[in-house]
Amino acid sequence: MTIQVGNVTTTPASVYTSTGNSAITFLSLCNYSAGNVTANVYVVPNAGSPGNLNAIVKNINITIGDTYQIYAGSEKLLLANGDSVQVDANVDNAITTVTSYTSI
């Protein structure tokens, strides 16, 4: 397994893009700022764009110092080559992401 970390801004951006086929085994959003933050998470097909049709978490409120886990335990999100997970928030540089994935 491999880990990838990212910083979230107000513009949707990829926190993980699949190279080949892969499975995300863990994804977390951590609010390290001094205020509450609202975030969105999208699973975007190769060459697609983030939007309401591929949102898996919409307007989640993450309180000061809290962490929100999306995939943990035995859950997995399978991605094909070029598919991505993209995240945005209402505040720049307030949330970090940690993604664990493995090639399949």
What do the pLDDT scores average to?
95
Q: Rg to the nearest angstrom?
A: 13 Å
> What percent of residues are in strands?
over 45%
What is the name of the CATH architecture?
A: Sandwich
In N-to-C order, the SSE pattern is EEEEEEEEE
Beta strands, count: 9
Report the sheet with the most strands, covering strand number, pairing sense and barrel closure: 5 strands, antiparallel
CATH topology type? Jelly Rolls
Number of domains: 1
Amino- and carboxy-terminal Cα gap: 11 Å
Coarse structural class: mainly beta
What gross morphology would you assign?
globular
3D structure, described in words:
- The protein is mostly beta strands.
- It starts with a strand and ends with a strand.
- Strands 1, 3, 6, 7 and 9 form a 5-stranded antiparallel sheet that branches.
- The model has no long low-confidence stretch (mean pLDDT 95).
- The chain has no helices and 9 strands.
What is this structure's SSE topology?
Blueprint lengths: L1 E6 L5 E5 L4 E10 L5 E8 L10 E8 L4 E5 L5 E3 L4 E6 L5 E9 L1
Antiparallel strand pairs: 1-9, 2-8, 3-6, 3-7, 3-9, 4-5, 4-8
Core attributes:
0% helix; mainly beta; globular; four-stranded antiparallel β-sheet; five-stranded antiparallel β-sheet; 104 residues; Jelly Rolls
Summarize the structure.
The protein has 104 residues and is mainly β. Helices cover 0% and strands 58% of the residues. It has a single domain (2-103), classed as Jelly Rolls.
